[in-house]
């Protein structure tokens, strides 16, 4: 099976697609901010503001999820 995939050139295109997805995510501003925050945590710089930001982000995510789960769809004719 793997040999057939390689012969058809599918493996290269799948790898290319994966590489494009990874590049798109890692070049984004959100990823860069998280990377910087995590680096600061590991190196011991600005640890309290970083922890506060992480907690705020998690709270916002959970509140948003709770609102979505509790909202009832309206069916109109």
Structural key phrases:
77 residues; mainly alpha; flat
Write the layout of secondary structure elements.
Layout lengths: L1 H7 L1 H17 L2 H15 L3 H24 L7
Q: Your description of this structure?
A:
This protein is an all-alpha fold and 77 residues long. The chain has helices at 2-8, 10-26, 29-43, 47-70. It is flat. The model has no long low-confidence stretch (mean pLDDT 78).
In short:
The chain is mainly alpha-helical. 82% of the residues lie in helices and 0% in strands.
Give the helices and strands as they follow along the chain: HHHH
Indicate the multimeric state. single chain
Q: Evaluate the radius of gyration.
A: 21 Å
Give the biggest sheet: none
* Distinct helical segment count: 4
Strand coverage percent:
under 5%
């Amino acid at each position: 099976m793997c040999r057939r995939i390689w012969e058809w050139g599918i493996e290269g295109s799948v790898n290319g697609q994966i590489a494009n997805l990874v590049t798109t995510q890692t070049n984004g501003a959100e990823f860069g901010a998280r990377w910087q925050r995590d680096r600061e945590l590991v190196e011991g710089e600005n640890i309290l503001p970083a922890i506060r930001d992480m907690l705020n982000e998690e709270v916002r995510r959970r509140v948003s999820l709770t609102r979505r789960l509790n909202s009832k769809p309206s069916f109109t004719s």
